Amino acid sequence: MILNGVxxxxxIFHCFLGDVYANKPPLAEVxxxxxxxxxxxxxxxxxxxxxxxxxLLSSLYWRFDQxxxxxxxxxxxxxxxxxxxxxxxxxxxxxxxxxxxxxxGHGSRAEAFGYRVMYSTSETENVDSYYRLxxxxxxxxTSITGAWAHxxxxxxxxxxxxxSDESLxxxxxxxxxxxxxxxxxxxxxxxxxxxxxxxFYHYLLAKLAxxxxxSYEQDHPDFMGDMYRxxxxxxxxxxxxxxxxxxxxxxxxxxxxxxxxxxxxxxxRYVVKGIDYIEYYEKxxxxxxxxxxxxxxxxxxxxxxxGYRFADHTTVPFAVEYVFIGDQQIEYTMGLxxxxxxxxxxxxxIRWGESVGVSQSFRYSLSSKLAMTLxxxxxxxxxxxxxxxxxxxxxxxxxxDMWFNVRFVL
Length: 410
What we know:
- By secondary structure, this protein is an alpha+beta fold.
- It is built from 13 helices and 15 strands.
- The protein has helices at residues 2-15, 34-37, 43-71, 75-89, 94-112, 130-139, 166-192, 199-207, 209-219, 226-235, 243-255, 258-273, 384-389; strands spanning 29-33, 116-121, 124-127, 147-152, 194-196, 277-279, 282-283, 286-295, 300-311, 314-323, 330-339, 344-352, 356-365, 370-380, 398-409.
- The strands form 3 sheets. It has a 10-stranded antiparallel sheet. The chain has a 3-stranded antiparallel sheet with strand order 3-2-4, with helices on one face.
- A hairpin with a 3-residue loop joins strand 12 (344-352) and strand 13.
- The longest helix is centred in the first third of the chain and has 29 residues, at 43-71.
């Protein structure tokens, strides 16, 4: 209700501005990444796969709007009003990719503990492939009422790994993955400085993952889903958190995120004036913060992301994550992204909390449209970030993941 009111006020404001129509197609790219090709798939790799499919959908929305506006320009307002209705009703194909990524969040955490993972939907039987899950969701898009990740067999972790929070980590993995997807959209928006207005479709519900899940469980009291299990497991740690509190904490995260306000302002301007791109909010070189709400084994946390852009070729991202209820933890992240030449770009990141994690990548651009990247991620299970993303615990509390990526801009 509040969101609807804010959108309406923004649209009224833009009605007083002059007529403007912009034609800037969404930047779409595809890539082959080892994290989306080699099992077990990683949240990073499938996150990229999800973003690329979002881009393709955004291109379809853009072309639809452009074709209608070419026939009769004022009709574009009605098209954009129709798209706004789809956004508010959560009725668009991007939802299916979000659901699949949610289930991967459960699946990737279960695989890290050594379980065998299967996926199913309300219309299909168990399948052992994430891509079969996506296919089933698309094939039955008009009749799907739910999707699930199932895990079997026994734990397979190193003796040094503490598995007491295994159920909590797996149960929270779905909404945590959705929030991570919102984080990826925010970071890409910051890197590009400009993004398609249609990214708001994919951003909004991922950003409100906990709120949406809680609302569903409140409307269906007999459904004992992820948030029910998380709350029960938190209570064993003397963390008593209610449904309204979970929704409020998620609400604080989105309302205090600069990307949300940029998207909201951009969407209302798009509906009224047809400007189909959004520019990122920066002040004096600093990235205005984005906040994401995660459910960790220690308790709920806020991840606050910012950065500083020295020039077009150098940015320094930094972040802090803080567990504010329960076993209080704090984790810092510092990075460096630099374009050394027209061909070479490097990205470095260090995360230190209970342990130290590191990520590094090297990108070489073969042309303006084709680039190759090699990288590695050293994940620490005892870190807040590592808990959500480590690929396997078979060798201990740490894992070194080497990966490659071939990227092509359409």
